[in-house]
Amino acid sequence: MAGEPLLKVQGVETFYGNIRALSGVDVDVNQGEIVSLIGANGAGKSTLMMTICGSPQAKNGQVIFDGEDITKLPTHLIARKRIAQSPEGRRIFPRMTVLENLQMGANLDNLKFFKEDVEKVFAMFPRLKERQSQRGGTLSGGEQQMLSIGRALMARPKLLLLDEPSLGLAPLIVKGIFEAIKKLNKEEGLTVFLVEQNAFAALKLSDRAYVMVNGRVTMSGSGKELLANPEVRAAYLEGGRH
Amino acid sequence: MANVSVNVQEDVMAKAVKEGAIAGIIAFLMFLVFVGIETYQDINNQLVWRTRWGLLAVFVIVAAVGRFITVGFIKPHLDKRKLAKAKTGVLEISEEKSFFHKHFLKIALVFLLCYPFLAMMIFGRQGSLKYVDNFGIQILIYVMLAWGLNIVVGLAGLLDLGYVAFYAVGAYSYALLSSYFGFSFWLLLPMAGILAALWGVILGFPVLRLRGDYLAIVTLAFGEIIRLVLINWTDVTRGTFGVSGIAKASFFGIWSFDVGAANNFNKAWGLPSSSVYYKMFLFYIILALCMLTAYVTIRLRRMPIGRAWEALREDEIACRSLGINTVTTKLTAFATGAMFGGFAGSFFAARQGFVSPESFVFLESAVILAIVVLGGMGSLTGIAIAAVVMVGGTELLREMEFLKHIFGPDFTPELYRMLLFGLAMVIVMLFKPRGFVGTREPTAFLKTRKAVSGSFTKEGHG
Predict the structure, then answer these.
(1) Which DSSP helix (H) or strand (E) runs through A69?
(2) CB pair distance less than 8 Å for A107 and B308
(3) Nearest chain A Cα distance for residue B326, angstroms
(4) How far apart are CA B407 and CA B417, in angstroms?
(5) Most exposed: A223, B69, B106, B436, by fewest CB within 10 Å?
């Protein structure tokens, strides 16, 4: 993992009006890694995710992807650089069928690899295959999350951003989804940047992790290190603040 | 067992009587002032009032009896049917479709192609005028407008209350350019479409950031602005007098439909002189334009831009995160919808031979939108059926002379067309909250197609 990281976030500051949500965040994601970002509610995790996608754009600092400055690009152009996102709240298209949802993800290549990639997604999430002609809005929460990840994968991303994939899901389903992410990373070498409140699961999964408090990264290290770290344990793993 | 069912029967009857009485009382209170009392000016120009107890009684009785029948007979009948269906375990979606149902579109198209000839055969040359023009052309214009608006509202989910503005742009483009420069219909038809599309983009730009209610208000204002410009720019548009003497459409430049012209169509074909042939020609033009609209809509839905429209309706943020440029997507939706409005407008001008701002009031936008909503947003078939029912219904009202025998000689049935609209809206929204055709045909398949019933999904938020 030598050389430049795939995604480099440098001193990024993001504002909502006058309110500073991120104050000088530095995060690196290397090719082939799973990196997670943990922290409490309102720490700015999702804001960082959205800033990488350019909505809102960072006021100061730089976001560099694949050697290219994408800080001031509009969201849809950032997405075309093959940064796929499974946004917070899943945001699938409720009135379109599962297959159509996946099709929307494959638009970047004008459906050239659609059939092939659909089979891959269906192999990973067999539930989606069963429900392929059902509308997105009729799926259960877990299935919607699978669809959201599947849709992001259809774009053949270099970097997959996952915002709270475990939100509101039963532990067993979370486990399944995390296993799928792990498998993607192992078998396809997909780089994943993950925002999670479920710190224990996220740290176990990740190669490296960052801890965020009040718009700043306060700690970083390998997943195992952070799992063992007493401060992290106290704050996020053993009861702590939530 | 029998005893129980008798009891149930009595219960239902008691309930029906009660609800009927309540409906009667409510109707009485509601209509007491509006229907029961009429104001008018007497000979001395004073405003005086008189009572109309008879008419009020009719309203109250209709409401009471209607409610009584609904609760007492229709509802138990429907419940029974539902129960029977549930027992047999047949889901509505898997029901075997009848021949008519399966081939509905083909049958409808064949019927439309034969329609003018059928009308002529049945009602004679002059008698068929009414059916070809008032029913056929009028309905098809609205079908086309509604299909055009469907692209903006039904597919892209952008609520446009000023759609009639594009219709006006199309109509005036043809009216003005043909009377000032003498261009032909076939040149100006595409030009009107392009001009309207241009205005669609002009409207699109400022409203890019708006959604839902805010968008609706701005588009509403846009429609009014266009109308007011047409009224006040008297040098060019002749204001409220309108533009008259607009040239007729020619048969692709080969034959003319002007009576005096040397290459008159009727003379060339040895037909008796009658305007019905021109109307028939117009009927086929608007039919072709409608087919074009439908074809483009169906094709676009399967193309990236059409899929992007539908995705935009569902979730804008998700769209952006998938690399869709929402700005161009919205603008193309506005432009495409507006273009079909422009086509319909220039056709309207050629057909009427006269345009004035009167034809492009907000009510027209509302009617077109109502047709789209009633038909089921996004469904071409549903919208066409809604247009036939709503526009055909209002035309039928004109024919209901016999109602004068019931309500007196002052009764003008066409004044009640909005009542009909309201009634249809309430009924459709009660029984089919997603419109006549609530199903949406999916565009992506791996093996077989399967329509997805609208009733299976929760209400959208688009």
Answers:
(1) strand A68-69
(2) yes
(3) 8
(4) 16
(5) B106
Interface of B with A in 292-351 (CB under 8 A): 304, 307-308, 310-311, 313-315, 317-326
Domain annotation covers residue A161: no
Question: Are B457 and A99 a contacting pair at CB < 8 A?
Answer: no
pLDDT(B92) > 60 = no
Query: Which pTM was predicted?
Result: 0.80
Above 70 in pLDDT, residue B289? yes
Query: Can you give the pLDDT at residue B42?
Result: 79
> How many Å apart are CA A224 and CA A217, to the nearest integer?
18
- A121: pLDDT strictly greater than 60: yes
For residue A92, which residues of chain B lie inside 8 Å, CB to CB?
Answer: 315, 318
Instruction: Identify whether A78 is part of a domain.
Output: yes
Q: How many domains does chain A have?
A: 1
At residue B434 the predicted structure's pLDDT band, cuts being 50, 70 and 90, is: confident
Range of the domain at A53: 1-82+191-242
pLDDT given for residue A107 in this prediction: 81
Question: Residue B395's pLDDT is what?
Answer: 79
ipTM value for the complex: 0.85
Could you tell me the pLDDT band of residue B165, with boundaries at 50, 70 and 90?
very high
Residue type for position A143:
E
Q: Do B444 and A100 touch (CB under 8 A)?
A: yes
Distance from CA of B314 to the nearest CA of A (A): 5
CATH of domain B104-456: 1.10.3470
Chain B contact present for A110, CB below 8 A? yes
Average pLDDT on B173-189 reads 86
Tell me if A158 is assigned to some domain: no
According to DSSP, the β-strands at A208-213 and A34-39 are: parallel
Rounded mean pLDDT, B255-260 = 72
Q: How many Cβ atoms from other residues are within 10 Å of residue B15's Cβ?
A: 14
Q: Which of A95, A132, A155 sits opposite B440 (nearest CB)?
A: A95
Task: Look at residue A64 and tell me if it is in a domain.
Answer: yes
Q: Where are the domains of chain B?
A: 2-85, 104-456
Instruction: Give the count of Cβ contacts less than 8 A between chain A and B.
Output: 107
Q: Say which CATH number the domain at A199 has.
A: 3.40.50.300
Joined tokens for residue B435: 């419109």
Is A23 exposed, middle or buried (CB count within 10 Å of its CB: 0-12, 13-18, 19+)?
middle
